[in-house]
Amino acid sequence: MKMFLDSAKTDEIKHALEMWDVDGVTTNPRHVCDSGKPFRTVIEEIAELVAGTEKCVSVEVNPHLTDWEQMVAEALELAAISPNFVIKVGVSEAGFRATRELAGNGIRVNATLIHTVPQAWQAARAGAAYVSPFLGWKEQYGDLAESMIPEVAVMLENYGYESEIIAAAIRNSLQISEAALAGAHCITAGFAVYQDSFRNPYTNMGEQIFQNAWDATPEK
User: Fold this and answer.
1) Please, what is the end-to-end C-alpha distance for the chain in angstroms?
2) Which of 101, 124, 147, 158 is the most buried (most CB within 10 A)?
3) Region 144-164: what's the mean pLDDT?
4) Superfamily designation of domain 2-216
């Protein structure tokens, strides 16, 4: 399962590339806003960080766009900035049409904001390279999300679609586990979520036991 960092902060991305060897980065308008930098500045800085690698970076078209041709025009401009860029397009009737056009021109698309199997199906049949079901948002508002990834995985397998599943909006280690066991091809989570996934109180307890034993062992 590929590990993507969900962030637009270059300090986090640098750390994740160096320490974790993440497979890629996903951004969205909120992450760009949180970086405190203009959109174009941020994505160009990220492009420099992954230049010369196969690591992909998802960058999103303006979410205000509702015309598929305008989506395509902006997507082509973004894709020209870096060969690492995958273009994020929100799922909608116009978004699926834009995805079909972009895929036909060799532009990789990450279909984002997916919350149902039919949305994932429409994105896959339009040629999206990635489909991104949002798990955390569903659970935040009281919907069960554990069946989402396995159902999308079955749909893709049933009909031979080549789209990869990015388990998105991951909020904790349990959701990482569920996505991995359900067959997600990739997972994207925030910096703090991954940091938490490295830790466990039982591991800390075990380390303390071993440290105490080490200190109590005679040197000679």
Assistant:
1) 47
2) 124
3) 93
4) Aldolase class I (3.20.20.70)
